[in-house]
Amino acid sequence: MEQTQTPTKLEIVRAATNAPELSTRTVPLGDREFKVVDLEYDDYLLFMAQLQPLLEGLLGNLPGVRGLGLSSVLSPTDIMRYCGKSLVDMAVIVCKQTDPSVTAEEVKRLAKSPFKLVTVVMAQIEQNNIIGELKDFFNLVLPLLKGIRKN
Fold it and tell me: Are 93 and 47 a contacting pair, CB within 8 Å?
């Protein structure tokens, strides 16, 4: 039987408000530090749209996704290969949660390297538990798809 830990008051407030000042996760870019928070719905959709080539590349070639540990499939080099042209846009989405005035040019200047932007993207993927949500989704959908294929 799995035991769950009761969240602290701070964790409850952090989850309820999603306030950047309460976030404990940060990503440094140049001489600045940006908080990583759960993306709001519209920003989440924009972020996921930028991840689409990665998801198609990783999941499109798999014979069966069920039971696969997606986190073991995802690597920084995969993000670079599939989302390289979108890295700045994705990092801007993350950084705008802390500073709504940040620009793509500023993010590029601060990062200096696409590898640094991959770190920002990976932090957001972890923060929003995107891999876990994908695993849950496929665990629900694949049995349905298998049932349709049999008919």
Answer: yes
